[in-house]
Amino acid sequence: MFCFFKRNCLERYPPPVIMADGRWREISIRLANAGLFAVAGVQAKLMDIENPNDIIDSAQKLGIKGVMTEEILEEILEKNISIQEPIGDNKKNTETNPIADLVPILDGTAESTNIPVKGRVIAPINDPETIPASRPHNLPHFSLSDFTMPANEIDTEIEIHFDITGNSITEGKMSDILSCFNSRLEKLKRIIVQSGRLRNIPTDITQVIRNRTRYSSYENTASIVGLVTDVRYNGDNLYFNIEDKSGDIACVLYPARATESSPEAKRRNNIAIAGLMNDDVIGITGHFNPGGRSDKFIIDDIHLPPIEKHEKRTSGPDKAVSAAFISDIHVGSKTFLEAQWMKMVKWFHEDPLAKTIKYLVLSGDAVDGVGIYPNQDKELEIVDIYQQYEEVARLTELLPDWVETIILPGNHDAVRPAEPQPSLDPMIQQYFNRATFVGNPCDFSLHGVRTLSYHGVSIMDFVSSIKHVTFSTPEVAMEEMLERRHLAPSWGGKTPLSPEPEDHMVIEEIPDIFVTGHVHGHFCGDYKGSTLIQSSTWQDQTGYMRMLGFQPKPCILTVVNLYTHKTASIPFA
Ligand SMILES: [Fe+2]
Ligand SMILES: [Fe+2]
Description:
By secondary structure, the chain is α/β, with parallel strands linked by helices. The protein folds into three domains: 7-102, no CATH class; 157-170 and 310-571, 4-Layer Sandwich (Purple Acid Phosphatase, chain A, domain 2), CATH 3.60.21; 196-303, CATH 2.40.50.140. It is built from 16 helices and 19 strands. The strands form four sheets. It has a six-stranded mixed beta sheet, covered by helices on one side. A hairpin with a 2-residue loop joins strand 13 (442-446) and strand 14 (449-453). Residues 1-20, 81-128 and 132-136 have low confidence and may be disordered. Residues 328, 330, 365, 410, 412, 518, 520 line the site of one fe (ii) ion.
């Protein structure tokens, strides 16, 4: 049968590189909107066909989605089905409104929770002009009847659980660093031990080494909980050290043999294939091989801190409002998409769905900043950092006054880069007549719905350490953060960390909504009961991104009903 448009399909069939001329651009947009993905040979044939839209329409009528191979194309051509009549409402909208075709409404409340929500891949470079709202509200799953009253009639209810602002006490001493790691180890060890998944009560590493003859077989094992260091591969075997307060020990993780199918073997295999991050906290069970040449601790079973299926809290029906999420608007940059911002402002004032939005969370990089990277001044429209923030204030205050904006800093903002970052400076905050400023990360509740917002710089460390995480799948990095119960495990990687005596980057409470930004992608979906949002940027592709071949997914507003947790992704590109 035909392969649907899932992540594994995309990995097996990576998008071919095409120099998109106007005709191919038009075809590719039609394909994307139909959930189709043409392999290289099919692309050439579609370019040769006089009216490729008929083929795409026929594919839709046949229920074909996902990768379009040459065989599938032949099948469609054989059946030679041309569309005589519109297919349902979507088709009617498409024909009557060409803009609707370019900016499809995207639904993040997918039945299958791992289906990524698609955003536009190519950021158009438009002349600044405000295009009227492209369509009326038409999201049947995001029913307005779920909301008993408009957001402007419901009081703001933000409860902050963690924000480093005013609470940073580190002096940057070695003792602070040690304290930070001890805090991490204690918090995560408690979670691992309380899960009851370890085979034995954990033993201090020095005790394990001292009694090595006792732990000499698969039947006579010891369990350890500690911090991972010095991760490296030799062939398929994963080597690392693990340390606790008492000492450290060299370990080896062999992938399971093909004949092994136990849960332990699967866990070993998963970690052996994916890899570990330096400074992860894990629990292991293993033994020594007294007859062998290696003195390493051989791992029989391995656990990250567990994350169970989560039951979301809700605002309740009487306080049903929506929260909207964006990030990385990079005001001040020449590539800030102002026309698309104005389109969103207009939508906020006109669309019935917008009247349900009580909160707008902006997860960092509100401005492009100054001196963030070499020669940045050549790419700046506004070269003064304060004027950049003045412009952010002007732009956010164009939104209706019932929308409460919550602003976190990111790595482009004018605060210390080390995480946790405090909120923007009070001198900058005074430009805003109304906004709530919090640090990065921030753990807060909106009408009781627990939300963890983190700008996401550590996604880069996850990409470089965990094999199946890529920049185009930042949501997988977010899943790995939840699995580790930590936002940024690796010290000395790409994420600058402040050694607070208590490690506040530990995810102690599973969030109902977990949101990041930074990599300018877009995703909205569910992972083990938490809604994951990789919030969309409002910046076009920069020269640096072009050089790396990175395509942002800009100008998509992600909206969550805090009562039902239904989601919608509204594109403005
Ligand atoms: Fe950014
Ligand atoms: Fe960033």
